[in-house]
Specification:
Number of strands: 10
Strand content: 5-15%
Number of helices: 10
Order of helices and strands: HHHHHHHHEEHEEEEEEEHE
Radius of gyration: 34 Å
Helix content: 40-55%
């Protein structure tokens, strides 16, 4: 028995030497295997962490979009105009023109339009801008976060945003993706319901809408005739919006009868100045007529015929010139008479309610060219 123990003791160093030799011979293989294991662990950790970050970012976007589309509010209070998507940024610049268009109370410390917080924009403009901005943001996020738990919500809200934008076909496409890719998700039923409602809602919107929304470029491009207004502070020109044929014809008949000569600018505020009332109190209805009207972003330089009563398009001789963006009436249904250039608005800005219209006449065409 003792002899056997001595033999086993003698064999041990040989076995140890054998294993050490094998390990040494396969050192490179074991190092590669160890490196692969470490790499797999690191990649798994990176992927999990990256997926977590993507998911958090995607859920934050879903929350922001939900808030914006539900009540036109901005949950990201630090979002500024300069942070918006290209199309949304251009729209704000086009509608406001300059920081002076916003009432001073809402500017805070902003030094330019880009520095203005989106939550400070007029409500109608803010909603339109948020739709444009979040549509791009959702499309970008879908490319990055397809494998996160927020993915079906990204598709669903992109459908909602597209629908609110008026892009029915595009909305249906995103709703369909929710149905096809996540058939067992509760949002699939929501998407099916919204697809069915979309056709009905879109038909209703078409019946309710008076026309497409106009902007300053549209007014300028549809202005063939001009009138020159001579005031006690100087002259300015109104380029008439010729798409409103009834309104323009009625206005020109008053101009040709010399109706406006001697009438005062009876109402003046930081946002608008009004004139053309024979009673000098905003109550006259001279030249009453049923004319065209638009859904328009009311902005600096527009000349609007004042509405009589609650009937859209029923206007008269009274007109208002917009000096600043009316904060609570961004998108307004009104009859547009024309537009005044920024250069001529310097004269309008100097007018007060003690100034008068000395005369209005049709501007002569420049035949020098």
């Amino acid at each position: 028995m003792a002899k056997k123990d001595v033999t086993e003791t003698q064999d041990a160093p040989e076995n140890t030497q054998s294993w050490a030799q094998k390990i040494n011979e396969n050192r490179s293989t074991y190092m590669v295997l160890g490196g692969v294991i470490i790499a797999v662990v690191l990649i798994s950790f990176w992927y999990t962490n990256n997926l977590k970050q993507k998911s958090q970012r995607a859920w934050a976007l879903v929350g922001s979009v939900s808030s914006a589309m539900s009540n036109a509010q901005v949950s990201d209070t630090n979002l500024k105009v300069e942070d918006l998507s290209i199309d949304a940024h251009k729209l704000v610049q086009q509608k406001l023109g300059s920081l002076e268009s916003i009432p001073e109370f809402f500017r805070n410390d902003a030094t330019s339009i880009d520095d203005l917080h989106v939550r400070k924009l007029p409500e109608d403009l803010r909603r339109t801008v948020l739709i444009l901005h979040y549509k791009v943001a959702l499309q970008d996020e879908i490319k990055k976060s397809k494998n996160t738990s927020a993915a079906p919500f990204l598709y669903y809200w992109l459908g909602n945003v597209s629908f609110q934008e008026g892009s029915l076909a595009e909305a249906a496409k995103w709703y369909q993706k929710v149905i096809d890719r996540y058939p067992n998700h509760f949002l699939s039923a929501e998407a099916e319901r919204d697809m069915l409602a979309a056709d009905k809602d879109n038909l209703w919107l078409k019946e309710q809408a008076s026309s497409t929304i106009e902007n300053l470029e549209d007014f300028s491009s549809h202005s063939k005739e001009k009138v020159e207004v001579v005031s006690s502070k100087g002259k300015f020109t109104i380029s008439l919006f010729d798409k409103n044929e009834k309104a323009i014809k009625n206005f020109l008949s008053l101009v040709n009868s010399d109706f406006y000569s001697g009438l005062s600018f009876y109402k003046n505020s930081p946002e608008t100045i009004s004139g053309g009332c024979s009673l000098s109190n905003g109550l006259s209805e001279v030249g009453k007529v049923q004319a065209e009207y638009q859904d328009a972003y009311v902005q600096r330089g527009l000349v609007i015929l004042e509405q009589i009563g609650d009937n859209f398009g029923e206007v008269c001789s009274r007109l208002s010139i917009v000096k600043k963006y009316p904060y609570f009436r961004g998108l307004q249904r009104c009859t547009i008479l024309g537009v005044i250039s920024e250069e001529d608005m310097a004269i309008v800005d100097s007018l007060t309610n003690v100034d008068v219209i000395l005369g209005i006449s049709v501007a002569k065409e420049d035949v020098s060219n």
